[in-house]
UniProtKB/TrEMBL annotation:
EC assignment: 2.6.1.9
Top EC class for this record: transferase
Source organism superkingdom: Bacteria
Reaction(s) catalysed by this chain's protein: L-histidinol phosphate + 2-oxoglutarate = 3-(imidazol-4-yl)-2-oxopropyl phosphate + L-glutamate
Pathway membership: Amino-acid biosynthesis; L-histidine biosynthesis; L-histidine from 5-phospho-alpha-D-ribose 1-diphosphate: step 7/9
Keywords: Amino-acid biosynthesis, Aminotransferase, Histidine biosynthesis, Pyridoxal phosphate, Transferase
Modified sites of kind N6-(pyridoxal phosphate)lysine: K211
NCBIfam families associated with the record: hisC (TIGR01141)
Protein name, as recorded: Histidinol-phosphate aminotransferase
Organism: Sporosarcina ureae
Cofactor field: pyridoxal 5'-phosphate
């Protein structure tokens, strides 16, 4: 590595995102995007912003209309809401605002691969907590974490949802540290931990518009918590870039929080397809973990997972394989449209 690099640049191991293939007919089931487009109201709002000729003006530094729309949706005030460029950015700000070098944080051994990346970047020591044999959370292992806790719920890539009483026990047993619940997939699952915000000043819930609201390309994520935590995030953000998200993202994302009917219809479609996918994959010889997300985590029982991943890729179907010892035998498959899933099943019948 270059002698010109700083210690930070040296210890940083960049996150490797899912592959993006640019063939038009590819069936892309590897990054958990929504197979359906965003609400037409989102496109109208972006068009209206463009028609207003406002691009030469800076956007709102406080992102007020969007924070207000999110707060209204969830019965909170805008002081409970922080917005960033995708939840990845909100996660980075949260690591900086709440986790400290020298105080070890805990996260599940199998979870979002960005957590170790940010920990290394910000020099925060971490302990990876092994999951139970059935991939559920061993909640007691997260109690009294010296530097705080971060976990995805539902977990990724396992797709398993932890009930709120489990989350609450972890919060209750970490009262002097911040517990971050990364709810990127929560709209496909049970209730959100945001219900607990009033009672737990140490709780930060992070969500995204990338999955359930089909806006991965717009890059809008947000955090919910008591105003003191939100103010901490705002201080960090202001040190980098006081504008956060651009005008088009704000216009589009705000509209996505107003069109509730479209939102629930699109989620229900994905959940219906998920249920039939679980059933069909089991019939095709896969072990399927119980999914509360917009993807399934499966183990081919009669075939090597990596070989199958490659064969699917050769046939134009991208799924995700992780070269991590404890999950090497598994594939993560995003839920696409019924048509896409049927094509996947046909190809699998030939390959397995
Ligand atoms: N958290 C988890 C658990 C995720 O899987 C993802 C998406 N890869 C993110 C956060 C980040 O999503 P985004 O930056 O698109 O909001």
């Amino acid at each position: 590595m270059s002698r010109f690099l700083s210690t930070v640049a040296r210890r940083t191991e960049p996150y490797v995102p899912g592959e993006q293939l640019n063939q038009p007919d590819i069936i892309k089931l590897n990054t958990n995007e929504n197979p359906y487009p965003p609400s037409p109201k989102v496109l109208e709002a972006i068009q209206a912003e463009l028609n207003g000729n406002t691009l030469q003006r800076y956007p709102s530094p406080t992102v007020d209309p969007l924070r207000h729309a999110i707060a209204e949706t969830y019965g909170l005030t805008k002081d409970h809401v922080f917005v960033g460029n995708g939840s990845d950015e909100v996660l980075a700000f949260s690591f900086m605002a709440f986790f400290e070098p020298g105080k070890t944080i805990k996260f599940p051994e199998i979870s979002y691969s960005f957590y170790p990346v940010y920990s290394k970047l910000f020099n925060i020591s971490f302990e990876k907590v092994p999951l139970n044999a059935d991939f559920t959370l061993p909640k007691k292992q997260f109690y009294n974490s010296p530097g705080g806790v971060i976990l995805p719920n539902p977990n990724a890539p396992t797709s398993i949802y932890a009930e709120l009483d489990v989350i609450e026990d972890i919060l209750r047993n970490n009262q002097d540290q911040v517990v971050i619940i990364d709810e990127a997939y929560i709209d496909f699952a049970g209730p959100s931990a945001m219900k607990l915000i009033d009672r737990y000043p140490n709780l930060l819930v992070i969500q995204t518009t990338s999955k359930s609201r089909a806006l991965a390309g717009l890059r809008v994520g947000f955090a919910l918590g008591q105003p003191e935590l939100i103010a901490g995030l705002t201080r960090i953000k202001d040190s980098f870039n006081s504008y956060t998200i651009d005008r088009l993202a704000m216009a589009g994302a705000t509209a996505a929080f107003v069109d509730h009917a479209y939102f629930s219809e699109s989620i229900n479609k994905v959940i219906r397809t998920r249920e039939s996918t679980v059933h069909t994959l089991e019939e095709l010889g896969f072990e399927v973990l119980p999914s509360d997300a917009n993807f399934v985590f499966v183990k081919p029982l009669h075939k090597d997972a990596k070989v199958l991943y490659q064969q699917l890729k050769n046939r134009g179907i991208l799924v995700r394989h992780f070269d991590q010892a404890d999950i090497r035998e598994y594939l993560r498959i995003s839920i696409g449209t019924d048509e896409q899933m049927n094509t996947l099943f046909e190809v699998l019948k030939q390959l397995t």
